[in-house]
Amino acid sequence: MAQRTLARYLTEEQRDKGRIPADLKFLIEVVSRACQAISIAIGKGALGGEGGVLGEAGSDNVQGEAQKKLDVLSNEILLDANEWGGHLAAMASEEMDLPHLVPHRYPKGEYLLTFDPLDGSSNIDVNVSIGTIFSVLKCPEGADLSSEAAAEQAFLQAGTAQVAAGYAVYGPTTLLVLTVGDGVAVFTLDREQGQFILTQENVQIPAETREFAINMANQRFWEAPVQRYVDEMLAGKTGPLGKDYNMRWVASMVADVHRIMTRGGIFMYPMDEKIRHQGGKLRLMYEANPMALLIEQAGGVATTGRERILDIAPHKLHQRVPVILGSRTEVERVSGYHQA
Ligand code: AHG
Ligand code: MN
Ligand code: MN
Question: Global pTM?
């Protein structure tokens, strides 16, 4: 059988299954091309442009984090790729304080796009997997797009309203992992063809796992339910869970989530005393929500510990939340400890 490219997969979702309209298909293709461009830029490393693409940009983002050159470059690639096509009303990004409105010279579309242009910034300079995360919402009818500040309101929709979500992981291979609400499909970038090819459909996360991902350096700051759960995992075979666990922490959410998509596991960036004042570590609109939709579509669970992530009613664009996601049985166990 002929290779199923991303374009073909999306055409089947549109024409044969009637799941997505043509402009959403176009939107996803444009995002995928931007991810290809980011992948190429990353691949150049120290050889890219003047002085390479590694290192600091010399600026801070709205969250007070030092931007890397690749954070800024990836953000620009996504903005440039998406603003002219007529499929979007506005975009929002980790790297921009306010939403970016589609300039007046271009037609305005029905969708809103949010993204974490470059996830795993601390891994850029050490040549470890990094990624891009994106989420697509419908722009509410009559939304006020008269200014960037006014446009923030249009984005404040629960994760259940997402019409598509995905991530690209720039690892040994570049992959695009996508859902349009019809399960999760994985596409592998064929670098010679310059195309994403479907390599896995209907991804299903195993319900049980022996692998957990958490930054153990924060242990003393966690809340009691997470302390209890991690203690029990560390107790291994002779402890209450009756099995030995292994630990992995890449510190790129995309890479840690992709491992879970591939072989199961549980990922936690829970609430802790150090980050309580800001609500958590990971951002709801462009990290937690898209990942939660993908995880649920693959049969897993995504929660703050107390609430399903996709049900959260956002109150601001750059809102942060605790995140616990992955294999069903394990996530349900630790959520149970939060209810106890
Ligand atoms: P970003 O690079 O987009 O700011 O995101 C980094 C996030 C996430 O990818 C990862 O899971 C987490 O930060 C790692 O945090 P620690 O360095 O605290 O482990
Ligand atoms: Mn991130
Ligand atoms: Mn980022």
Answer: 0.98
